[in-house]
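Q: Mind making up any chain with structure tokens?
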Amino acid sequence: MEKYKNILVVIDPTTNDQKALKRAIELAQYTQGKITAFLSIFDFSYEMTTILASEEREVMRKTVIEDRKLWVEEIVAEYKPDDFEVDCKVVWHNRPFEAIINQVIEYNYDVVIKGTHQHDKLKSVIFTPTDWHILRKCPCPVLLVKEHSWPENGNILAAVNIASDEEEHQALNKIITEEALFLAKIIKANVHLVNSFPGTPVNIAIEIPEFNAQEYNETMQKTHQEAMEKHAKAYDIPIENTYVLEGLAEDVIDEIADQIDAELVVLGTIGRTGLSAAIIGNTAEHVIDQLKCDVLALKPPGYKSPLDNN
């Protein structure tokens, strides 16, 4: 299957340092893909010029769009090789995430690549509402780029939910693993698998004195380990490249990613929206906050964006 042939890279309007564009070009050179450099802009001051006729406001908007497109073209020229073509597109929209997802739906992009913001004082990555909306609602894979390079013979970590009986999780495990293997092949990296399992429920341990917490944990570990070995064998992934640990998914994934110095973590997001997302949160989002490397977030098969009206 051909992948990553049609790449949408989100340009960061706040800086000339376009790490997402750099990564997009790197990926496109591996896949012989084509890139569209995309910027969504909006200025309330232009919308509030009600004293002007609508035609004049439209002229002003077009002028701003053309000005920003020239800037994007200049940025792209700095990053791309001379023989490499990158399309540039600027649209006027007051909700950047909607503009991005609408592009994906209309033009069938294979992946969205977007940079993350580094907060110098906190020495951590700050994620904007746009990032979260894209993660939850974008129908295609989303690659969030940080500062970690992609060295040859590096490590890709695929985070799977290995013991779940839910069809959606099983299908997602397959997609995550196959995506990690595909990327590992083209960038010459090694694939590792990680899975976490919950520890003893505290309330049960307290309320039922005869409950054997150690035996419970050993059983859980064995069940997940056997499922992991079966999954790894199906994809010819060495057992020594698999990790099954007790704990919260976000902590376990972060720990192993650090341990193997992963350049990329591949994981799934179910794409919750609304109240359930606010209350429960997505594991993918908790993980992404902590990781120091790039993250590729995938949706389950059959996922349809809430912005897709077709």
